[in-house]
Amino acid sequence: MISTLGPVAESVFALKQFGRQGGAPFQGWQKGVRERLGARVAEVEQLAGRYDTDELLTLLKHPGGNPDAGGDERARQRAQATLFGFCQAAVLPHWRQMRGHLASVRDACGRISIANGMHTALDNLHPRLNWRPPSLEAPGEPDRDVHLNGRGLVLCPSLFLAGKTCMLVEDFQEIGVPVLVFSVPVDTTTATTLWGHGGGDEQALSALVGHTRAAVLETLSDSCTTGELSQRLNISLAGASKHAKVLRKAGLITTARQRNMALHSLTPLGVALLQQRRSAGRRTDGQSSAA
Asked: How many other CB atoms are found less than 10 A from the CB of residue 35?
């Protein structure tokens, strides 16, 4: 079990919630997102209407894109950029609180499985999920049978599965096994904790990566291979690969593989994060000089 698929994947689920007439728990969040998006609201709403959730998750499999692939590819890149912009406005300002809440859900499910067995944990994931050994029945549209064939199943909570009990996500990034994402109820008390104390884009973006990986992002403003990243930062190949993997899962970089080399580049969200950090640094320097 994991706590989240990351802020960009959570933004895919949030996109559908954003367009709904949500109840009281989501009204404050929707208002804040609209304020941060400003003139980009129409673009985001168009994206939500054009793609379903599965299609948006598929977009994340190839975040770099191919500029020579013609009109469809350019449209896909625009959709990716809009999605990353929505992530910055809708999820990242609250990511620290959201990640903590989702981690607590994961931990609670883990304690239940240790104390009472995995069957009980599956029964407690959601009222509409039904564990009938050897099958987990999850109502969906359309209903289908998924045969794991020994692959295993990853369980993951989400705060934004609007109108859904759960969703099966296959072949997501490097997880390697199907992921059953299940909805987590949000009441008004939880909403106040999650949306009521947003720290602003800059703080949330900084909290997402920390100082060490910020240096990796800075280095990747000029695309490079894992070996080059290792040399530029004077770290081991294993360390460079690990940092790249974490940033890739967060949607901040993309990796193109050619033979035995991996070329890492920033995504639009990674560029936005880097610009935020640079702007914050200039403001800090200016304040120090004035003092």
From this structure: 10
